[in-house]
Amino acid sequence: MSTPLKTKIQVPRSRDLEVNGVKYNRSGASRSNFEMLAWLFMRLSGIVLVVLVFGHLFVNLMVGDGVHAIDFGFVGGKWANPFWQVWDLVMLWLAMLHGTNGIRTIIDDYAERSGTRFWLKVLLFLSSGFVIFLGTLVIFTFDPCPASADPELLASFCPAA
């Protein structure tokens, strides 16, 4: 029988981790529960997103004429109802925050240097914030019945049509 090899494996994310000549400069352990709360958020938001996305798909693809009914008028009529505005807003916010948190975790796991991690996270948070802001703006300022439009071009649910 051969004796098993004994190797010392460094603890991942330890302060002095060095692999193949690359030093990982990780900060010390956090005293907050941020990572635990982020983990919990991912699980809960995932469950809520499944309900929101399948509800969205069912209403858009199965009810009425299905996919053939989706056009400008369909979206305008849907967003004329505050229920669907809130539904789509919650879906947008949860999807963006869920995805951003997932990418943040990937950056923490795979970016080797602190500076790289910092700038990747800055770009991630700025782009995520921009998409959330722009999506929220579109949902609440979308007007399918502009006052100056030709009445023949307006959707059937508009008062001037």
Automatic annotation (TrEMBL):
Alphabetic keyword roster: Heme, Iron, Membrane, Metal-binding, Transmembrane, Transmembrane helix
Gene3D superfamilies: Fumarate reductase/succinate dehydrogenase, transmembrane subunit
Compartments, as annotated in UniProt: Membrane
CDD domains (alphabetical): SQR_TypeA_SdhD_like
TM segment ranges: 36-59, 79-97, 118-142
Superkingdom of source: Bacteria
Pfam families: Sdh_cyt
Record has Nucleotide-binding as a keyword: no
Protein's name in the database: Succinate dehydrogenase, hydrophobic membrane anchor protein
Species: Kocuria gwangalliensis
